[in-house]
Amino acid sequence: MTANLADSMEVLEQLRTEAPPRIAAATSVADLDALEADLVGRTSPVAEARRGLGQIADGAIRGATGKAINDVALEIQGLLDARRTTLEAQEASVRLASDAVDVTLPGHAPRRGTLHLIQSTMDEIVDIFVGLGYTVATGPEAETEFYNFTALNIPATHPSRLESDTLYLDYGDEQDEVLLRTHTSPMQARYMEEHDPPTYVVVPGRVFRADAVDATHSPVFTQLEGLAVDENITLGDLKGTLAAFAKQFFGTDTKVKFIPHYFPFTEPSAEMHAYTNGQWIELLGCGMVNPAVFEQVGYDPARYTGFAFGMGMERMAMVRHGITDLRALLDPDRRVLEQYK
């Protein structure tokens, strides 16, 4: 054995004596990793002694020396592994303690959204009429000229048929052009075509007109159409139904009045006004269904009468909440919308 190898073996014996207390003193896995590199790593005395084995010419001595070096390395590695297991368990316990959740504390619930004021207004009005015995129907937003105008007794010369008022689609033909419906009234004709009287139905939905956005107009808005057809329905039934709706929606002390007006699909026709916020405000249009509409859908005008009404949901919401500018309802600013939860 050379002098250098002898010196290395002395260092290993010293390491065998010093390693246990150093390993036991390690307080973290990180400290133990650094200590392991010093004791049995690539630059450790163990590695240095193994590199010196090549200097031993005698095979028997070389084997015995290699075994002695390996015994020291295994002993130290065993101590390192045992200490690592202990430290890892301790650190896991600390992490678990710091991550513990007190299940008795109140949770952090996410903020809940809400319906837009226009939608909630429409839902409430629909519920009122369902409570009065009406059913709910919906129809296409892309409508034919026949159902949007002709079936409702709107003459070919009526200005609402012009492109300045109505948004036509590049679809269909000249015989029956396709357009974005200007009101929910086309469902009057569609529903009556498919259902025999008595008929009590409300139709909520979006409608479209060639209007610029301002304080009271929008090219897209929502309406609710109502239709009642039965034997012996009178104008008094119309007034009583809409007065009951107004009292339920605006308050039991709400006063209403009906002012004569003109609509092609009703006769006689009227506007209903309500007294609210200290003034009379127009709410909706209504009237007795024109017999010409019954003839279009195959109802017998000599046997059946009925009434129809239509209202804008934006209008209802604005009157009820004192909103003076329609654009407030179209503003995506949450600070505006959250005022009407």
Can you walk through the features of this model?
It contains 12 helices and 10 strands. The chain is 44% helix and 22% strand. The radius of gyration is 44 Å and the shape is rod-shaped. The N and C termini lie far apart (91 Å). It has 2 domains: 96 residues, no CATH class; 224 residues, 2-Layer Sandwich (BirA Bifunctional Protein, domain 2), CATH 3.30.930.10. With 341 residues, it is of the alpha+beta class. 28% of the residues are buried. It has a 7-stranded mixed sheet, with helices on both faces. Helix 1 packs parallel to helix 4 and helix 2 packs antiparallel against helix 4.
Tally of helical runs: 12
What overall geometry do the principal axes of the alpha carbons give?
rod-shaped
Report how far apart the termini are. Answer: 91 Å
**Global Rg:** 44 Å
Structural class: alpha+beta
Mean pLDDT: 88
State the share of residues found in helices, binned by percent.
40-55%
The CATH first-level class of the largest domain comes to: Alpha Beta
Sheet with the most strands? 7 strands, mixed
Stated plainly, the CATH topology of the largest domain is called: BirA Bifunctional Protein, domain 2
CATH architecture of the largest domain: 2-Layer Sandwich
In percent, how much strand structure appears in the residues? 15-25%
| Largest beta sheet: strand ordering | 1-5-6-10-9-8-7
Q: What is the quaternary state of this protein?
A: single chain
- CATH level 4 superfamily of the largest domain: Bira Bifunctional Protein, Domain 2
